[in-house]
Amino acid sequence: MTGHPPGPLWTGRASNRAQWLLAAAGAAALALGIELAVDFSWESGTVPLAMSVVGCLAVGLLILYGTIAFVHVAVIVDSEAMEVRCGHIGLPRRTIRLSEVTSAEFVPRITPRQWGGWGYRWRPEKGTAVVVRRGEGLALHLGDGKLFTVTVDDAENAVRVIRTHLRALAR
Predict the structure, then answer these.
(1) What pLDDT digit, counting tens, does each position of 97-140 carry?
(2) CA 63 from chain center: how many Å?
(3) 2 pLDDT higher than 50
(4) Are residues 60 and 80 part of one domain?
(5) Percent helix, strand and coil across the chain, each rounded to 5?
(6) What is the pLDDT of residue 1?
(7) Same domain, yes or no, for 53 and 88?
(8) Is residue 58 a part of any domain in this protein?
(9) Does residue 119 sit within a domain?
C-alpha cells in the first residue's frame, strides 16, 4: 500500500456507437432465425429449415455478444491496479497489478486494423489489446515482456497517474 486512500485515482471510458449498427444486424439475424423456426411452411424439408434456423440463431447471438460486449470499455486505475471492463456487464474483464508494470505509455492513435479488428485481441508481435474504437489509448509494458493496450479517452492523464504510482512503488 502506498498510503493513498482506497478508491479510484483515475477512471476513463471509450465507446463506439457504430457497434450498435452491428448489434442491430445481429438482432435482425436472431429475429430471422426465430421467424423461420415459427413458420413451418418450408416445402424444401426439415433439414434445410433446421440448418437455416440454427445458422441464423448462431450468427445473431455471436454478432450480438461480440458487439455489445465491446461497445464500450471502462478503465479504473487505483493505487494497486488497473482494471479494464468491457461492455454493459463488465465482461471480459482484466486486472493488471501495477507491481507487474514496468512502464506506461500514451499511444495517440490506435486503430482496429492494427490489432485485427475490434474487441479483445492478441497478436504475437504486439501483445494483448482491448480495442473498442480508433483513437488514443495507453499501453502497459509488463515485467514478463508482454504488452497490454487499451483504447480509452483521456489516456494521457491515465499514463501520468500510472507513472506516478510506478515511481512510488520503485522507492
Answers:
(1) 999 999 999 999 999 999 998 889 999 988 999 999 999 999 99
(2) 14
(3) no
(4) no
(5) 40, 35, 30
(6) 42
(7) no
(8) yes
(9) yes
Residue ranges making up the domain that contains 32: 19-68
Instruction: Determine contact, residues 67/20, Cβ cutoff 8 Å.
Output: yes
| 45 and 84 both lie in a single domain | no
**Which amino acid is residue 128, in one-letter code?**
T
Average pLDDT, the chain: 86
> What's the CA gap between 154 and 77, in Å, rounded?
13
Residues 107 and 160 in one domain: yes
Q: Would residue 2 count as lying in a domain?
A: no
What does the block give as the cell for 146?
A: 508482454
DSSP string, 63-124: HHHHHHTTSEEEEEE-SSEEEEEETTTT-SEEEEEGGGEEEEEEEEEE-HHHHTSSEEEEET
Per-residue pLDDT of 136-163, as tens digits, reads 999 999 999 999 999 999 999 999 999 9
C-alpha cell at 122: 492478441
pTM of the model: 0.74
Number of domain units in the chain: 2
Q: Work out the average pLDDT over 24-51.
A: 77
Any idea what the CATH number is for the domain that residue 151 is in? 2.30.29
